[in-house]
Amino acid sequence: MKIDFQQLTQMIQKLKANPYKIYPVKTPHTGKIIEFKVKEGMEVTGPRGKWLEKPGSPLFVLEREKNPKIISSNYNGVVQNIRFEFLNKFVEAFETVLEIKHALTQEEIISEILLSTLFVIKAPETARYIINPELAKQIEKEGLGKVTVKQGSELLTMTFMKRETPIHLRERGTFVIYRLYFKPFEIVPSNAPLIGLCPVEDLPYLERIIQRIKEEWPA
Amino acid sequence: MKDKVLIANRGEIALRIIEACDQLKLDYVALYTKEDEESLHVRLAKKKYRISDYRDMNDILAVADEENCTAIHPGYGFLSENYRFARRVVKRERPLIWIGPSWEAIRDLGNKLYMKRVAHELGIPVIPGTIEPLYNEIDAEFKAEDLLEEAEAQGFKEISFLIKAVAGGGGMGIEEVKTLEEIRPVFRKIRAYAKRLFGEEGVIIEVKIPRFQHLEVQILGSKKGEYVHFGTRNCTIQSPFKQKRIELAPGFCSKYRYAFDPEKIEREIIEYSLKLAKHFNYDSVGTFEWLITPEGKYYLMEVNTRIQVENEISAKISFIKDKPVNLIREQIRVAMGDNLGYTQSDINFRGMSLEFRLIAEDTRRGFVPLSGTINRFQYTPQPWLTMRTHVPQDTPYTIPTQFDPNLALAIIYAENLEDLLQKSKIFLDDIKIEGQTPKGETLLTNIEFLRENLNFIYQFI
């Protein structure tokens, strides 16, 4: 692996120019929005705790079948574009209610940049994916950047048109699972990144890239 | 108050329910999910709501209340055979009419083992097999040994077994086993699969009937205790995963030779189906599925407590007082408490009907379902052809990947077998389905498979 440091610097500069990502917050299902818990420009936080067991800041209350449900923030950021016209209205599923302007963290910048460096397994179909349970267990125990896979290893299971298909690693060599780019059981569009792998022999290069990003982008 | 129907389903069945509501001059509300936005059922519905999932009971009921609906039509699949949902619909604070059988009938007939036990007690023949769910591989092996003896005593030869998940169906969670040694590993596999997919570990073992025809009886009962049948269908031509591909009505054809009296057997399976329906006070459309062996033995397999995909071929050959039938309309009518307004002697059968299920699948590579975009979907309208599809003909359509890859149903009506085969061939030569997979390859369909299998209709497979 060769590192094009010039290109790397360009990518960092580009991200520095607009270090934000805007996340729309949608209704997970139908219901009536009975209360907004936030105002425009308010700062909110995402879930916290070791297992993300502490929910993020409450955003609004959606009531359905007499059950009020607090929809809370999944990201740190600032609230914008609240659609107050939905207050006390019945809304459909997946309607955008507000947006959160999220400032990218060092970790997210690294993930973003590594997308162009790592060997990325992409979704072959628009489908739901789960990581191989044994690998998931290992990753939970050892963390990302530690667990290795070889040619032929079962990486994922794809649930597609009511059938389950395993996805194996086709590439020769030994790789380290470095990044996961999807959430289990969520629908991933075709060609979106699923897993970022790094050949074992290239690990030192990767460490240098990350070091460089950390210098440019202090935590 | 005028009734208003919430259509809790998608695709072509949603369209057929819309049509039935229009004929009955009932208001309706359709539902859809974000994957289905291009579907014709969304385009053609006058009133519709986006929900999170067709299986989300709370979303369905929330829309029903918001729109002041008085009834829910569940279609087929999804929640249609979920007795808990059916019960909730009729028992909630603002009760709604469930367009389907009573929740008790769904519960009792949907439990295959319980149904089998009751059928057995009523003297209705059922496939030799376990009556209780098995959870333990040692029990499974013992039961299989018992079954083997029983089947040999009944004159079966080259016996093999089917290991099935109790909660399975539609070809999911079922595997064939040829020797007793294989019972334990396959049992473990099916149990694990069932636990993961259905959350219910129970497994049953049945003797596999090597050659058979799959017949089914179409029943309609009303809340007033009236019962009629709309004859039989033959659904023997299926994919290796036991999903139907060609269906015919009636179930037997006088042009074929049988080693038994087909009229007698048809009469008997209809009588037995009605007997079981009456036992459960069945009050809607329902299908009783039977296996017929070449020797003329027959066994009740299962009961489908819903409207079925292939209902329309029965409707095509049935005439009530010489008028055409729409079974979905009849289903809605009886759910609203109407009398049938006719008896069995008012129903006449005339002609033959066939249904093709047009599906994007690779029939040469394990019938894998295919996703992709359909750029051309074209056929010549014919007086003898009814197409049921949610695929638009005027714009490209991307097949959603969360559901079955069914594209269309082609229903053909003819006076006799010769005529039926000729029209079927004309249709298959004429239909054009063209598209691309996400990788840019040609999208395959099962049209060739349907053409080849037209040679095997009404035969024992």
Structure notes:
Chain A has 219 residues and is an alpha+beta fold. Chain A has two domains: 20-103, OB fold (Dihydrolipoamide Acetyltransferase, E2P); 107-216, RNA polymerase II/Efflux pump adaptor protein, barrel-sandwich hybrid domain (OB fold (Dihydrolipoamide Acetyltransferase, E2P)), CATH 2.40.50. Helix content of chain A is 21%, strand content 38%. In chain A, the strands form four sheets. Chain A has a four-stranded antiparallel β-sheet with strand order 1-8-6-3, with no helix packed on it. Chain A has a four-stranded antiparallel β-sheet with strand order 5-4-2-7, with no helix packed on it. In chain A, a hairpin with a 2-residue loop joins β4 and β5 (67-72). The longest helix of chain A is centred in the C-terminal third of the chain and has 14 residues, at 203-216. Chain B is an alpha+beta fold and 461 residues long. Chain B has four domains: 4-99, 3-Layer(aba) Sandwich (Rossmann fold), CATH 3.40.50; 128-207, Dna Ligase, domain 1; 213-350, 2-Layer Sandwich (D-amino Acid Aminotransferase, Chain A, domain 1); 354-456, 2-Layer Sandwich (D-amino Acid Aminotransferase, Chain A, domain 1). Helices cover 31% and strands 28% of the residues of chain B. Chain B is built from 13 helices and 24 strands. Chain B has an eight-stranded antiparallel β-sheet with strand order 13-12-9-10-11-17-23-21, sandwiched between helices. In chain B, α1 links the parallel β1 and β2. The radius of gyration of chain B is 22 Å and the shape is globular. Chain B starts with a strand and ends in an 8-residue tail after the last helix. The mean pLDDT of chain B is 95. The chains are: A alpha+beta (219), B alpha+beta (461).
